[in-house]
């Protein structure tokens, strides 16, 4: 045994720890500027009476909070001078939020009761760089700080080694699909049981089980009991020897000596039960999957047989699958997904991209080396994709492979935001 199988996971873990390690510095930027003291930078920001972040410069303080009790998330702010409350009319306030992807939201404020109310909803995720400008008593004040949640940084090399795959979200088709079981069988007319024309002893056998033969090729030699002369038993079609039931010295009679089939294509007999038998009709697309290795092939239902399978009491739908690679084997069980209807949608993502974060269904978007959650409102789904009603826009770069790694790194970082 070598150490190589263990090195990549170790490198990945170390890389993720390294990229996550820089994050507390970003989350802990205090109000009013940078902090050189690392321990001070990790401290929680000071909170006010309304559980908002306190921004102080000289005698002036603004308490800024995201309020979401019974209303969509909104900014509220309270003004203070020398620790004493000021009326909301005593100042002006603007908050600019810069999100990943160079998206900016500008919140202006108007007086309400004892606070200033922001003009926009603070939509999820509450993850942004915050720039605050205010004017109180004619004094211009500014603050800036990061407020991140559901965000992490993974260097490109580490992401590549981890197998993280990103693709743009876009339109597509949601399919009404039915999962059924099936069985592979040779196609009628491409399958033959070869018998001797005249009874007699078998003098020679020229092919074996699994051999590929051409039409007219000699399979065995039999001495006729009628003429006492030898004749060749030949293949009626090109194909593969599925069974050889004869050996030299046997007596050829009415029983088949060989079974031959052209396996370049096979029938897939799908067994339909209950309502599936009413919905599934000829002409529908079907995806057939080999149980042995998970390889799939797309084809179309040729027909639904008129009878019922006696043993299973199922209706049989039949399709043809190409067998150019020779790996589809007669008698093997398969699973199939029949598409009954297709519905175009404006935006969808693969189900593999979805993760749970808090109480949300989310995907992760990537900008540079930064990854961040996007809470989604979801619509229709099939076995592969799900419709996105809100939370993304077409072209957003979504993690569609190894999304759980991004989730784990975000949870490790513990990024949160102020409410």
Automatic annotation (TrEMBL):
PANTHER family: CATION EFFLUX SYSTEM PROTEIN CUSB, SLR6042 PROTEIN. Residues 347-407 form the CzcB-like C-terminal circularly permuted SH3-like domain. The keyword Transport applies. Residues 191-262 form the CzcB-like barrel-sandwich hybrid domain. Keywords: Transport. Residues 266-339 form the CusB-like beta-barrel domain. One of its GO terms (molecular function) is transition metal ion binding. The keyword Transport applies. This is HlyD family efflux transporter periplasmic adaptor subunit. Residues 52-143 form the CzcB N-terminal domain. It comes from Arenimonas fontis. GO terms for cellular component: outer membrane-bounded periplasmic space. InterPro entries: Beta-barrel_RND_2, BSH_CzcB-like, CzcB_C, CzcB_N, MFP_Cation_Efflux, Single_hybrid_motif. Pfam families: Beta-barrel_RND_2 (PF25954), BSH_CzcB (PF25973), CzcB_C (PF25975), CzcB_N (PF25971). GO terms for biological process: copper ion export; plasma membrane copper ion transport.
């Amino acid at each position: 045994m070598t150490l190589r199988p263990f090195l990549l996971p170790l490198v990945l873990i170390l890389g993720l720890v390294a990229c996550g390690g820089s994050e507390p510095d970003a989350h802990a930027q205090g109000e009013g500027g940078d902090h050189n003291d690392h321990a001070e930078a990790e401290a929680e920001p000071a909170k006010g009476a309304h559980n908002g972040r306190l921004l102080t410069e000289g005698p002036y303080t603004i308490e800024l909070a995201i309020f979401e009790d019974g209303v969509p998330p909104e900014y509220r702010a309270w003004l203070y001078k020398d620790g004493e409350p000021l009326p909301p009319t005593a100042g002006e306030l603007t908050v600019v939020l810069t999100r990943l992807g160079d998206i900016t939201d500008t919140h202006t404020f108007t007086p309400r009761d004892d606070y200033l109310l922001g003009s926009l909803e603070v939509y999820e995720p509450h993850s942004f760089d915050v720039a605050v400008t205010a004017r109180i008593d004619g004094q211009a004040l500014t603050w800036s700080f990061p407020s991140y949640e559901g965000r992490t940084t993974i260097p490109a090399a580490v992401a590549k080694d981890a197998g993280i795959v990103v693709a743009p979200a876009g339109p597509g088709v949601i399919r009404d699909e039915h999962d059924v079981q099936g069985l592979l069988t040779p196609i009628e007319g491409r399958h033959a049981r070869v018998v001797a024309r005249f009874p007699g002893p078998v003098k020679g056998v020229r092919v074996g089980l699994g051999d590929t033969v051409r039409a007219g090729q000699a399979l065995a030699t039999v001495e006729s009991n009628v003429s006492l002369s030898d004749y060749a038993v030949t293949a009626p079609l090109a194909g593969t020897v599925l069974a050889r039931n004869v050996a030299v010295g046997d007596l050829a009679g009415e029983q088949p000596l060989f079974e031959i089939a052209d396996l370049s294509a096979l029938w897939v007999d799908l067994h339909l039960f209950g309502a599936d038998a009413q919905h599934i009709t000829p002409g529908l697309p079907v995806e057939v999957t080999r149980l042995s290795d998970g390889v799939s092939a797309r084809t179309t239902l040729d027909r639904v047989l008129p009878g019922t399978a006696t043993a299973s009491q199922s209706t049989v739908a039949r399709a043809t699958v190409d067998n150019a690679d020779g790996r589809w084997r007669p008698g093997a069980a398969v699973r199939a997904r029949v598409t009954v209807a297709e519905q175009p949608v404006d935006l969808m993502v693969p189900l593999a991209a979805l993760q749970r974060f808090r109480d949300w269904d989310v995907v992760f978007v990537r900008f540079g080396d930064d990854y961040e959650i996007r809470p989604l409102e979801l619509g229709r789904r099939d076995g592969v994709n799900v419709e996105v009603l809100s939370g993304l826009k077409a072209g957003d770069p979504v993690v569609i492979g190894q999304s759980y790694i991004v989730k784990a790194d975000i949870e490790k970082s513990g990024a949160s935001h102020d409410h």
